[in-house]
Design brief:
Chain A: One of its GO terms (cellular component) is cytoplasm. Chain A: InterPro entries: ARM-like, ARM-type_fold, Armadillo, ARMC8/Vid28. Chain A: Residues 1-21 are annotated as: Disordered. The complex is a heterodimer. Chain A is mainly α. Helices cover 65% and strands 3% of the residues of chain B. In chain B, a hairpin with a 7-residue loop joins strand 3 and strand 4. The chains are: A mainly alpha, B mainly alpha. Chain A binds chain B through residues 1, 7-8, 35, 38-39, 42-47, 90, 93-94, 97-98, 129, 132, 136, 166, 205-208, 249, 293, 334, 336, and chain B through 90-92, 94, 97-98, 101, 104-106, 108-113, 115, 125, 129, 131, 134, 142, 145, 148-149, 151-152, 196-197, 199-201.
Chain lengths: 668, 242
């Protein structure tokens, strides 16, 4: 085998770039250096980054630029310049391929207009090179936004789509796929007749079919008008063509056909709703999961878009044994992050509403994989695993059986509370919120693993989304929990923090904080005593929030909390009374009456419960309290509620009235 | 009559069989086979498709001249593809890479697995030629980053690098990497990738037909006893066991 020095020892990047930049290098040598560079970087991400750092891109772009300019001169060197154009365009395209930093460098160096000018070149290879590189740029998020709304841009796009060159039509389709985002743009494209052209491409080569399917999906997405235009008779039986493509030989084509149909399905509920198509979509995607390559990685995401929030689709998927299939894949071993994320995403969707899915998932021991997933390198995988846990733990039956409250689940979850990524933290909080609603009261496991400490820490976060979820998790944790646990929680939390949460600027946090207190004081007298301690500052904070807040959620939780406190002893009842009806002030009276007159039946009910507890005949001070309430005009109000249309309200109103009347008779 | 004819007829006949289990003698079977009509044009297309997909340019040209069958791809594009395949088969991997990149720079940029296999082949060739130092350097510079970029390649990578550890490479556990078959495997992978990028089917139709025959015979075995083709290369009808 013949060898030469250059082929076994590739030139160092610095040397190559030096040769490209130097004015002394003869042009032929520059062409060779270009080709060399290109061959070093294609497929090699590490080399691309190395060359990028050394400033290769501006050098290459400047060579492209001078070749393009020199081209105009024509003559003998035409072939030579064309080679330079091809090699430099290809090198630029490679820098942009799958590398955001590369795309940025390429755009910054001004390559874009140069590449554009190549597309219409007479030499097909030059046009190909330009079109391919532009296409690769458009596949990146950093691509320049294409302004479809400008007339000449639309004309240019149409010229691309109408070209005979497959790479150029591919570029046109790619621009649509990646740049079309707004309804107005979809509309403009539709009006310019793009759909017709894309539909005709569906009958072209494999690459044209694929490119066209992606563009069509982008155009109809969430746009019922364009969707129906697609299905109009003038576009031939376009829908049927796409449906047929679901059975195409090529996995990627099948996947894209499904994606396109799902896009239409999710946009207009009047199309593609028959059971035949629903089943086919599920079965085709199920089979695509087995693909070992990028198609198999993408398939779960497409499946998710099909079934998310749709109980009927989840049922069909369940019946098609999708869960078994996903478990097979999990069992098969370590996958790339993307696929793992996809699998958990779909499992999460399946478990979001259907108990049968949750049961099946737990039967198949999926939880064994969750521990590892929660500690995965990829933040997306961690998030997907948390969301899956959150959904599967909606199963009351399994929660009660203590399926989730064990160290294998608790420990990694708690660790995620300190995760670097906010979205992972929030997802973990969501999962914890459900998992701690454990009727078997194994919550001590969670507490022992340091969960409370973390939750309290997060309840002080600057981000309201984290605060609200952390308090929610604490709230759920304290639901029906043992007194000992309550002690530990409150010790960690402190009354001061509790009060500041009740007074939080976000109403959603206030509501959760009040619900938390409600849970804390639910139960024995000890609980109530413990929470309110010496000075009753917490009680005071609650009452103040009740008076000032306008959000019904906050009012409801506040009222229930007071109601729980009022179920305690004499001291507690008096304390509540003082907060609800302080000596000075018409305001307070108005609050009580205002709540009783609320349009929200839950608030009416909560307030009535408080009254019921305050006027409980068995307690010594009941009589005095009744008089005060009577003077505040409560009786009249109650009388108006005895026939309330809400049963709960009606019954409590009558109960309260009855209790008030007992004392009324004897004290008149 | 060509073997091909026989196979095709066999296939067509079985597909038309009735469902009840019975014994069919050779005489009867051959009579049925004779009744099956297969068009010459279809056969020619199959042959052309095979030659073109596998890249036998000269044979395809000759066949086109002699049979008048038109290929479904431009024979000129086959030449480029064949040059690549030949380069790999001869162990000139670097040359092959350059040619692929000239043909379509996207192929290796978007096919990490293929690119890795080509790099792997380069390493194998260096080892085969006893260039140990260069091989080490290459493994470090070019292959290790692939493993870093993509964990799925680590196992393969380890196997290949293991070659460097053995004195007698042809007898070591991973010695099969030095086989010519490894080159052919890589060459085939490149061929398929180029075909796909050109929007062509990467598999010829003929193997599918043969697979269908095997499957269909298996199905019929459950229902009848008849003369089978057991050896595809000879297409000889063998009498039923009865």
């Amino acid at each position: 085998m013949p060898t030469s020095a250059t082929s076994n020892h590739p030139s160092r990047p610095e040397d190559l770039i030096g040769r490209l930049n130097s004015p002394h290098t003869p042009y032929e040598a520059k062409l060779k250096a270009l080709r060399d560079l290109k061959n070093q970087i294609i497929g090699n991400r590490t080399k691309k980054l190395a060359f990028l750092k050394l400033g290769a891109v501006p050098s290459v772009v400047s060579i492209l630029s001078s070749a393009a300019a020199a081209q105009g001169g024509g003559g003998d060197n035409r072939e030579f310049y064309e080679s330079v154009l091809i090699q430099s365009a290809a090198a630029i395209g490679s820098f942009a391929c799958g590398l955001d930093a590369g795309v940025k460098a390429v755009l910054d160096a001004g390559a874009f207009p140069l590449l554009l000018s190549l597309i219409s070149h007479l030499n097909e290879k030059v046009a190909d090179a330009g079109a391919r590189s532009l296409k690769l740029i458009y596949q990146s998020k950093r691509a320049p936004k294409y302004d479809f709304l400008q007339q000449k841009n639309m004309e240019f796009l149409l010229s691309l789509l109408n070209s005979k060159n497959e790479n150029v039509t591919g570029l046109g389709a790619n621009i649509i796929t990646h740049s079309c985002q707004t309804t107005a743009e979809q509309q403009a494209l539709s009006e310019a007749g793009v759909i017709k052209r894309l539909v005709s491409l569906l009958g072209g080569s494999i690459n044209q079919k694929d490119a066209s399917l992606e563009s069509l999906a982008a155009m109809v997405k969430e746009n019922p008008e364009v969707s129906s235009k697609f299905m109009a008779p003038e576009n031939g039986r376009a829908l049927n063509v796409v449906i047929e493509l679901m059975k195409d030989k090529h996995p990627r084509t099948r996947l894209l056909a499904c994606m396109c149909l799902i896009s239409i399905r999710n946009t207009s509920t009047s199309y593609l709703q028959d059971s035949g198509i629903k089943n086919t979509l599920v079965l085709v995607l199920l089979e695509l999961l087995d693909d070992a390559g990028p198609v198999g990685d993408e398939a779960p995401f497409v499946l998710s878009s099909l079934i998310t929030e749709k109980e009927d689709m989840q049922k069909i998927a369940f019946n098609a044994n999708l869960i078994e299939k996903l478990c097979e894949h999990l069992n098969a071993g370590s996958y790339q992050a993307k696929r793992l994320q996809g699998i958990f995403l779909v499992l999460g969707d399946l478990c979001s509403k259907l108990e049968c899915c949750r049961d099946r998932v737990l039967d198949l021991q999926v939880l064994n994989f969750v521990t590892e997933a929660l500690a995965h390198d990829s933040a997306e995988v961690r998030t997907a695993a948390c969301n899956f846990l959150k959904n599967v733990s909606r199963s009351v039956k399994n929660l009660s059986a203590g399926q989730f409250m064990n160290e294998a689940v608790a420990v990694p979850l708690i660790q995620l509370l300190c995760d670097a990524s906010t979205s992972v933290q929030i997802a973990a909080l969501g999962a914890i919120s459900n998992v701690v609603v454990d009727f078997m009261a194994h919550k001590s496991v969670f507490v022992q693993c340091g969960g409370v400490k973390q939750l309290v820490q997060l309840s002080k976060s600057m981000e309201s989304a984290i605060r609200v979820n952390a308090v929610w998790a604490l709230r759920n944790l304290t639901f029906l929990v043992s007194y000992r646990c309550k002690e530990e929680i409150l010790l960690e939390l402190t009354s001061a923090t509790l009060i500041s949460l009740i007074n939080d600027p976000e109403p959603s946090v206030q509501g959760q904080a009040l619900a938390l207190v409600r849970n804390l004081v639910d139960g024995t007298l000890n609980s109530i005593n413990y929470v309110f301690g010496e000075d009753g500052a917490v009680l005071h904070a609650i009452a103040r929030q009740l008076r000032s807040s306008s959000k019904v959620e906050v009012q409801i939780q506040g009222m229930y909390t007071l109601s729980n406190v009022a179920s305690g002893n004499e001291i507690h009842k008096e304390a509540v009374m003082n907060q609800l009806l302080p000596q000075a002030g018409n305001d307070a009276e108005k609050t009580l009456v205002k709540f009783l007159q609320s349009t929200d039946s839950r608030l009416r009910t909560a307030t009535l419960w408080a009254l019921v507890n305050l006027t409980f005949p068995g307690s010594p001070g009941a009589c005095r309290r009744v008089t005060e309430l009577r003077n505040a005009g409560i009786i009249t109000q109650l009388k108006n509620m005895v026939n309330d249309h809400c049963l709960d309200v009606k019954l409590r109103a009558r109960m309260a009235l009855g209790q008030l009347m007992i004392f009324g008779d004897s004290s008149s | 009559m060509s073997l091909f004819w026989i196979v095709i007829r066999q296939l067509a006949e079985i597909q038309a069989m009735a469902t009840s289990k019975k014994v069919i003698t050779r005489v009867d079977w051959e009579k049925k086979l004779n009744d099956v009509k297969v068009r010459k044009e279809d056969m020619n297309k199959l042959v052309m498709n095979f030659l073109v997909t596998e890249g036998y340019v000269e044979a395809a040209e000759k066949f086109r001249l002699e049979s008048g069958t038109e290929p479904d791809i431009d024979l000129a594009t086959i030449t480029d593809r064949m040059a690549v395949k030949k380069a790999v088969q001869s162990g000139n991997v670097e040359d092959a890479i350059e040619k692929v990149n000239d043909l379509n720079p996207e192929i290796l940029d978007t096919n990490p697995q293929l690119f890795f296999h080509l790099q792997q082949q380069r390493l194998i060739e260096l080892i085969r030629n006893g260039k140990v130092e260069e091989a080490l350097e290459f493994a470090q510079e070019e292959l290790a980053p692939r493993g870093e970029e993509n964990q799925g390649f680590l196992e393969e990578l380890e196997r290949t690098v293991a070659l460097l550890a053995f004195e007698d490479v042809s007898n070591c556990p991973v010695g099969e990497l030095l086989d010519i078959s490894q080159r052919l495997k890589t060459a085939s992978e490149v061929n398929a990738a180029i075909l796909t990028s050109q929007s062509h089917e990467k598999d010829p139709k003929l193997p599918s037909l043969l697979k269908m025959l095997i499957w269909v015979q298996a199905q019929l075995d459950e229902k009848a006893s008849y003369p089978r083709i057991n050896d595809l290369s000879t297409a000889v009808l063998e009498d039923p066991a009865v």
